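step: validate -> pass
step: tokenize input -> pass
step: predict -> running
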Amino acid sequence: MRIALYEPEIAGNVGAVMRLGACMGAAVDLIEPLGFAWDDKRVRRAAMDYIDHVEVTRHAGFAAFRAAVAPRRLVLFTTKATQSVYDFSFAPDDVLLFGKESAGVPPQVAEVCQARLRIPMRPEVRSMNLASSAALVLGEALRQSGSLPG
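step: predict -> pass
step: emit ->
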């Protein structure tokens, strides 16, 4: 299973997702442009020594990313979706795609995803933190697919 971040803007979120990937055995794809310098100390601080235990691939843009992960299923997480993550059947080779913190993904990216899901939450709040969302979804996806680490 892979976690893909579309044009992430916050180094700390990327570091936290990299640490998540290391702990749970999920590769991480970063779709450029990034909203920070890749050598940013905050990425390393958040990922800590886990950075050496996760496969991270940077892609020059969405087209390069799609070509690299094809034919895997792209599962987008968005507040605009109606289907809950808990009403979906994940597969072990899914790519879990999360949009940029400030704007999500553009419509042309959402349209090519095979599934669009939302995390159920209280109506008076807008969205969860990117890294928190990735952790919640990855845990459910790995549980469903029988891929949780021992």
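step: describe -> The chain has one domain: 2-144.
step: cleanup -> pass
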